[in-house]
Amino acid sequence: MEFSSQSPCSPSRAVAYPAFNYLNLDWKKHTEIDPKYFRPTEVEYLKADPSKARKKLFWSPKVSFKDLVKIMVDYDLEQINLPSPGEGKRISDEKNIVG
Questions:
Q1: What is the chain's Cα-based Rg?
Q2: Which 3 state secondary structure label does DSSP give 3?
């Protein structure tokens, strides 16, 4: 997974897009960008590579990033007593992920 502050897939968008998409909403219509929250030493380019953890720790993720976002969205909606689509809950139950 790679992020660049110049790309359409910055770290915040990488979470916002699949979360809003899961709820069939356009994230651009429901979010605002306030420059006062930009970090003065913002990293221009981030790249995640879990291959070292796989090799050295024999680790592998139980769920994909998109599924993780669905699990988090369902959990957050349930916490404020709003109905969730339920796919995240189903994934969590199937994979035995405790929330």
A1: 16
A2: strand
In angstroms, rounded to a whole number, what is the distance separating the alpha carbons of residues 26 and 60? 31
Find how far residue 71's CA is from the centre of its chain.
9
- Whether the pTM exceeds 0.85: the reply is no
Per-residue pLDDT tens for 59-96? 888 899 899 999 999 999 999 999 999 999 999 999 99
Greatest Cα-to-Cα distance within the chain, rounded to the nearest angstrom: 43
Which among 21, 71, 12 has a CA at the least distance from the CA of 42? 12
Nearest to 30 by CA among 45, 20, 43, 40: 20
* CA–CA distance, 90 with 86 (Å, rounded to integer): 6
The tokens describing 41, both together, are 């030493």
